[in-house]
Structures are given as structure tokens and as C-alpha cells.
Design goal:
The chain is α/β, with parallel strands linked by helices and 688 residues long. The protein has helices at residues 12-24, 28-38, 41-44, 50-79, 83-100, 112-128, 170-194, 206-229, 241-251, 258-280, 291-306, 308-312, 332-363, 370-382, 396-404, 411-427, 436-446, 448-451, 457-463, 465-480, 483-503, 548-559, 563-582, 597-601, 623-637, 650-658, 677-687; strands spanning 108-109, 146-149, 154-161, 164-168, 393-394, 507-513, 519-521, 528-529, 533-539, 608-614, 642-646, 673-674. The chain has two domains: 38-133 and 169-500, no CATH class; 507-573 and 605-687, STAS domain (Transcription Regulator spoIIAA), CATH 3.30.750. Helices cover 58% and strands 8% of the residues. Strands 6, 7, 8, 9, 10, 11 and 12 form a seven-stranded mixed beta sheet that branches. InterPro entries: S04_transporter_CS (IPR018045), SLC26A/SulP_dom (IPR011547), SLC26A/SulP_fam (IPR001902), STAS_dom (IPR002645), STAS_dom_sf (IPR036513). Belongs to the SLC26A/SulP transporter (TC 2.A.53) family. The chain crosses the membrane at residues 53-77, 106-122, 173-195, 207-229, 249-273, 334-354, 375-397, 409-427, 471-500. It is a multi-pass membrane protein.
Length: 688
């Protein structure tokens, strides 16, 4: 006989007050710990093993820096911003994460998916403000609050902030939207860290994240096709952007630039070949080949000396200034416009960063603090937003490269930032003649990993059909509707799948494994022996309001007995018997004698006297669940069938006690509740 422990009731009010007093108290030691926790670099940098770590950190930092420069310039196309802002973003993100991050290996910076989400918001706001989304529109300014010059195809926007009028062109307004969006996303992340809302990431399952990334990759691919073939069409906005873009591409296919098509074909062949060779011989290479950098350098030289822009009208990156522009506070008015858009951006940025951090920590046997990661990525957005940067996140591809090239700590991030700084201060103008189609090729080839997820669909389907369905729905919604809606659809659909699973769970009658005290599903296993006069019913889900009816229907179907119908049939029969007796007829309605009536009251189909409910899979009961069990207890009792519960967990037992299932004094509890199915079966046999 097991006896429950008596738990001391906790005064939650006093506990809360004690925690509040502790958190509000300030001592030198506590202040020091707070600073050290907020800036983890202060803990690990003094213990840095220079001789052991420096070579790996320098090598990985240089490799990531070399990869980062061309990717940063390329991803500016996704964000709808000038390349210089992508370089700013890459520089500041690496420095801030070095100070605040807890992962040793994650590479934080510009990320294609985040750039796409920023670019969609930027394009929408530019369109609403009256700007032309044509990338090649000259950046001239007009006068007035909102003017359009049909000849020069330029727009000026008069932005009123804090009572001051500031005339702002397309580029200025675009980076204003991006910085406001980034600042708000960073604030959300910091607030989530303060209120410890990291659990939000639990609702983004692996299937949802993979589907979201794949759907967004299709959107990114579609957005880059116009650069590949040199068609000058504005970027599509709103829902169904992928379909609309492809329709516009086919309508304007005659405008394709032959120079861009040839350049794109050559670049894609070179990049894909180099990537495949790199993957094949990665165990022999100490660091990955800087293919993107080589392609960019060669393409820039060919474009410059071949005058591809002047002769063939091929689109080029244009002037990239050197140095840093003065810091500027993001516009509050613009923050209000993008406050809703910043929420999915903040969640996706945080989830990818924490997921990669946990992956690296598990692989290299150290721990991270998820809450501090939220602070780190939040400040990687807040602080750079004052320096004309946009949203960042951890990137899988660069993180894998970082770990494979010997990275030991985030010192490698500082080295990468120095490489970007070198480009910012001296080398940026050299990329003036770089064709946009080359940047588009780099983006498309970088999507190989996400697009390869389509090859995994059969294996995914074989492993779990529901997860595959979640992946397909999320991917389709992200690609065909929009990335934000796709994420929301994926989360809601995955939750609905869980609800449906609990609404219609597996149910079974159990049989006894011969010569043992164990019982299993009679429909799944052979050679199980049924227990005479006993039915054992298993329900593999919590019992609550949404699956109450399914519980009852399954129970009645498997036991081949609905107690309500049987009770009604008996009442009807008894009523007929009384009518016959009143008339003086000594035969029953069935033509039998009165002495034989008793046999007819118990129909032949009731082949059991005890029902055992296996509650091992019932994790909790709500009020409806308790009432349902009380209902079957009463209904079967009317038919002289006893109901026994087995394998209930403490939570279920407490719910039954509070619901009055065992009576007021729990006197009959030992005859109704058993800790194993076998005990319940033995009790039923003894009762006979």
C-alpha cells in the first residue's frame, strides 16, 4: 500500500515578496555578478588560452570575414538597401555579440531570411510613401511634401519628426524604415529577456522552422531571378508575391539582358562546382575555398574593364562610400508604423540564434544561457540601429564554417569584424562595377541547403506523416502568401495537429501476456489471452472537454455496450412486462413465463462484469473529464458492472478526489483505484 506524502503549502505571496526583495537589493558582489552576467566576455576573456586558441580563432575569423564581405554586399539586394548598410550591420553585430554572447562558435551577422523580412517591410513602406521601387531609379530629390517627377522617376518625402521638417529621399527613407524596424525588434527581444519569455520559441517546432526557411528560400530565389536575367521590374508587394513575380518575369522575358544572362550562367556554374567540390573534399581542406570572393573580384574586374554597364546596360552595385556615417536616432514615427512587423522578426531572429547556440554547445560540451542570448541578439539590433544597420541573427552556414575552421571563442568574431572594417574604410569603392546579377548568383547558390530540404520529404514522411504535413503547410504558406503569414500559419497548424491528436487518440482493449502480469493492445499483438468477465480499456491522451465524446464512443464501441441504450431498453421491457401482468397474462412480451423473465433482463451480449480503465496515458483531467468518469461509473453500476481505475498518476488522483469520484470520505477508494492493471484484474476475479 503506497501512502501519499503530505506537502507543505507554500505561501506564494511571501515567496514573491522574498524574490522581489532579493532582486531589488544591491550589494557590491551582486552588482559585480550582474555586470559579469550581462557582459560574459569579462568572465572568459581573462582566462583566454592564447597559445591554444589564437591560431584557430584568427583562421576562422579571417575565413568568415572573407565570406562575410561578398555575402553582406549580396544580401543588401534582399533588404532593399545599399551595400554599405549591410557592411555596417556585419561589423557591429560581430563586435556586440563578442561582448554579450554566451556561445563560443555562433556566427552572428547578416542572414538571408532576416534580410528578406526587412526588405519586404522596407518595400511596402516605400510604396506607401510614393517612392518608385525600381532599383535603378536615380536618387534625386524634389521639393514639397510628396512629389513625383515622371521624367526623372524620382520621389521626395517630407518627413515631420519632433516638429522639424526633414526632406528625405528614397535611400534615406528606406534605411530609416530598416533602422526603426530593427530598433523595435531589438526592444521586443530585450523585453522578452527581462520577462523571461524565451519559452515562446518552444512553439516553433523543427518542422515549422524548416518549412518556414524553405518557403522563404523560394521567395528569395524568386526575388533574385530578375537580377539573373537583367529584367527591370519593380519588386512585387503584398500576398502572393511569388506567383505575381513569376507572372511579371514571363511577361517581360523579352527584355532580358543577354550580358547578365551569360554572366549569371558562368557564375552559377563556377559557384556550384566549387561548392560541390568543397563538400566532397572538405575533410582534406583545412578551410573552405573563398569562391564567392574570387568570383566577385574577377567579375568586378571584367565588368570594369569591359565596361559592361556602359556598353550592355548591365546593372551594377554603384558607388559604395567609405567610412562611417554619423549615428542617428531611429525615427519614432516610423517605429509606430512597423511595430507589428517587428514582432515576427524578433521571434525568428531569436529562435535561430538560440537554436544554433544550443546545437554548438551540445556538440562541444559547454552550456549557454538562453536568456542572455536573447539580450545579446536584442542589443545586436538596438545599438547598431543608431549606426544605420538593420536586423541580424545567427546564420547556420557561417556557423558551420566557423566550427570547421578551428574556432575556439568569439575572438574570431572580432577578427571577422576587422576584415569588414578594412573593406569599409578602404576597399568598398572598388566594388562600384560589380554586377548585381553576380550578387544574385551568390544569394541563390547560398540557398542550396534550404532547397535541398525537398529531397528529405520522403524520409520525413516515412518518419512522421503529421510533421511532414506541418512542413508542407508552413512552406506553402510562407512561399505563396507571405513569410510572416506563413510563420503564423505554421504555428497555428502545428498546434491544431496536437489538438486533433488529443481529440482522437488511440484507444484499445488490452489482453494479458500469457504467464505474466502485463497487459497489451489486443489489436496490435498476437497470442494475448482475454480475461474472463473483465474488459480492460486504454485511452492514450488526457481526458478533457474536447475529447470527452470520443472517449465515450470508443469505450462503447470496443466493449460493444452502450449503457444508456441498454438501460433504456431494459426500462422499455419492464414497462411492457408490467402491462402484461396487469392484463392477467402470465406470459411475458417475449412469450416466456414470468420465471424466465430474469434471464431476458441480462442480454447475452454483456459478456463482462468489470471494466478496468487503464489511466497510464491520461496525463490530466479537467472538470469535464472527471464528470465523464463519474458518469460511466454510475451508468455501468446500473447494469451491475463495476468500474475500476488503474495506473492513475497523482495529478489525476487529486482531480478525482476534488471532483468527488470516490465519495465524500474516500472510503471506497481502495476498491476503485489500483496502482497496476494486474491488481485491478485480481480484485475483479476475487469479487466474483
Amino acid at each position: 500500500l503506497m501512502k501519499r506524502k503530505t506537502h507543505v503549502k507554500i505561501n506564494r505571496k511571501e515567496v514573491m515578496l522574498a524574490k522581489l526583495r532579493k532582486s531589488c537589493s544591491c550589494t557590491p558582489k551582486k552588482l559585480k555578478n550582474f555586470v559579469m552576467d550581462f557582459l560574459p566576455v569579462l568572465r572568459w576573456l581573462p582566462k583566454y588560452k592564447c597559445k591554444e586558441y589564437i591560431w584557430g580563432d584568427v583562421m576562422s575569423g579571417l575565413v568568415i570575414g572573407i565570406i562575410l564581405v561578398p555575402q553582406a554586399i549580396a544580401y543588401s539586394l534582399l533588404a532593399g538597401l545599399k551595400p554599405i548598410y549591410s557592411l555596417y550591420t556585419s561589423f557591429f553585430a560581430n563586435i556586440i555579440y563578442f561582448l554579450m554572447g554566451t556561445s563560443r562558435h555562433v556566427s552572428v551577422g547578416i542572414f538571408s531570411l532576416i534580410s528578406l523580412m526587412v526588405g519586404q517591410v522596407v518595400d511596402r513602406e516605400l510604396l506607401l510613401a510614393g517612392f518608385d521601387l525600381n532599383d535603378d531609379a536615380p536618387p534625386a530629390l524634389g521639393h514639397g511634401s510628396l512629389q513625383n517627377d515622371s521624367q526623372s522617376n524620382t520621389t521626395a518625402f517630407n518627413l515631420t519628426i519632433a516638429g522639424m521638417d526633414a526632406e528625405c529621399g528614397k535611400e534615406c527613407y528606406a534605411i530609416g524604415i530598416a533602422t526603426a524596424l530593427t530598433f523595435v525588434a531589438g526592444v521586443y527581444q530585450v523585453l522578452m529577456g527581462i520577462f523571461r519569455l524565451g519559452f515562446v520559441s518552444m512553439y516553433l517546432s523543427e518542422s515549422v522552422l524548416d518549412g518556414f526557411a524553405t518557403g522563404a528560400s523560394l521567395t528569395i530565389l524568386t526575388a533574385q531571378v530578375k537580377y539573373l536575367i537583367g529584367i527591370k521590374i519593380p519588386r512585387s508587394q503584398g500576398y502572393g508575391m511569388l506567383v505575381i513575380t513569376w507572372i511579371n518575369l514571363f511577361r517581360n522575358i523579352s527584355q532580358a539582358n543577354l550580358c547578365d544572362v551569360i554572366t549569371s550562367a558562368i557564375c552559377i556554374v563556377v559557384l556550384v562546382t566549387a561548392k560541390e567540390l568543397g563538400d566532397q573534399y572538405k575533410h582534406k581542406l583545412k578551410f573552405p575555398l573563398p569562391t564567392e570572393l574570387v568570383v566577385i573580384v574577377v567579375a568586378t574586374l571584367v565588368s570594369h574593364y569591359g565596361k559592361l554597364n556602359e556598353v550592355y546596360a548591365s546593372s551594377v552595385s554603384g558607388a559604395i562610400p567609405t567610412g562611417f556615417t554619423p549615428p542617428k536616432v531611429p525615427h519614432f514615427n516610423l517605429m509606430l508604423r512597423v511595430a507589428v512587423d517587428a514582432l515576427p522578426l524578433a521571434i525568428v531572429s531569436f529562435v535561430f540564434t538560440v537554436s544554433l547556440s544550443e546545437m554548438c554547445a551540445k556538440k562541444y560540451a559547454y552550456t549557454i544561457r538562453a536568456n542572455q542570448e536573447m539580450f545579446a541578439v536584442g542589443f545586436c539590433n538596438i545599438i547598431p540601429s543608431f549606426f544605420h544597420s538593420f536586423a541580424t541573427s545567427a546564420a547556420l552556414a557561417k556557423t558551420l564554417v566557423k566550427t570547421s575552421t578551428g574556432c575556439q571563442t568569439q575572438v574570431s568574431g572580432v577578427i571577422s569584424a576587422m576584415v569588414v572594417l578594412l573593406v569599409l574604410l578602404f576597399l568598398a569603392p572598388l566594388f562600384y562595377s560589380l554586377q548585381k546579377c553576380v550578387l544574385a548568383c551568390i544569394i541563390i547558390v547560398s540557398l542550396r541547403g534550404a532547397l535541398r530540404k525537398f529531397r528529405d520529404v520522403p524520409a520525413r514522411y516515412h518518419m512522421n506523416k503529421v510533421d511532414t504535413l506541418v512542413w508542407l503547410v508552413t512552406m506553402s504558406a510562407s512561399a505563396l502568401i507571405s513569410t510572416e503569414i506563413g510563420l503564423l500559419v505554421g504555428i497555428v497548424f502545428s498546434m491544431l495537429c496536437i489538438i486533433v491528436r488529443t481529440q482522437r487518440p488511440r484507444t484499445a482493449l488490452l489482453g494479458q501476456i500469457q504467464d505474466t502480469s502485463f497487459y497489451e493492445d489486443d489489436g496490435e499483438y498476437e497470442n494475448l489471452s482475454s480475461v474472463p468477465k473483465v474488459k480492460i480499456f486504454r485511452f492514450e491522451a488526457p481526458l478533457y472537454y474536447a475529447n470527452r465524446n470520443y472517449f465515450l464512443k470508443s469505450l462503447y464501441r470496443l466493449t460493444n455496450l452502450d449503457p444508456n441504450l441498454e438501460a433504456a431498453r431494459r426500462k422499455k421491457y419492464e414497462k411492457k412486462e408490467k402491462q402484461h401482468l396487469k392484463k392477467g397474462d402470465h406470459t411475458t412480451a417475449n412469450g416466456l413465463g414470468i420465471g424466465e423473465t430474469t434471464l431476458q433482463l441480462v442480454p447475452k451480449k454483456i459478456d463482462f462484469q468489470t471494466l478496468v480503465v487503464d489511466c497510464s496515458s491520461i496525463s490530466f483531467l479537467d472538470t469535464t473529464g472527471v464528470n465523464t468518469l463519474k458518469e460511466i461509473l454510475k451508468d455501468y453500476k446500473d447494469l451491475n458492472i463495476s468500474v475500476l481505475l488503474a495506473c492513475c498518476n497523482p495529478s489525476v488522483i487529486d482531480s478525482l478526489k476534488r471532483g468527488g469520484y470516490f465519495g465524500k470520505d474516500f472510503g471506497s477508494m481502495q476498491e476503485m483505484l489500483f496502482y497496476s492493471i494486474h491488481n485491478a484484474v485480481q480484485f475483479a476475479k476475487d469479487q466474483k
